[in-house]
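It is worth pausing here to work through a concrete case rather than discussing structure prediction in the abstract. The textbook approach is simple: state the sequence, then state the predicted structure, then interpret. We follow exactly that order.
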Amino acid sequence: MTPAIKVRDNLFLEGNKIISFETHVADIVGGTIVPLGRFSQTTTKQLNFLSSALRLPFGESKDLRVWFHKYYPGVKCAPDNLLSPKTSRRVLDFLKQGKTFLESICSIPESEIPGKDLPLVEKYLRQFNASEEILTLRAINSIM
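Step two, the predicted structure:
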């Protein structure tokens, strides 16, 4: 399971997936944001914000019609795998530097990851079977 980071209210990044409320609305592919269809004005604003924040252009839309649940104004959604605001901000900072989601997670020294986030991060990294590359990156970042 990939941990999610909160970009702003009801806008989340889960690896390369962009989630609005509870709907997967776009992907980050090859340095571009690729929408999966046409969405509400709110979701369009969220995608534009993320494009500006991460300095990523929009790619060709897959133009798939995606079912989109309409929520009442003021609702706040949060996935179960959401990292804390502190960790989310750190990951976003690394993403802005052009790192991948995995590189961003690995770039945060373990000592600076809040206790409640550690199980999510470790579970995510175990998906990669703790490859030598990941262990090396974590070790380097722990001494920096």
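Step three, interpretation. The radius of gyration is 16 Å. Helices lie at 41-54, 85-96, 101-106, 118-126, 132-143.
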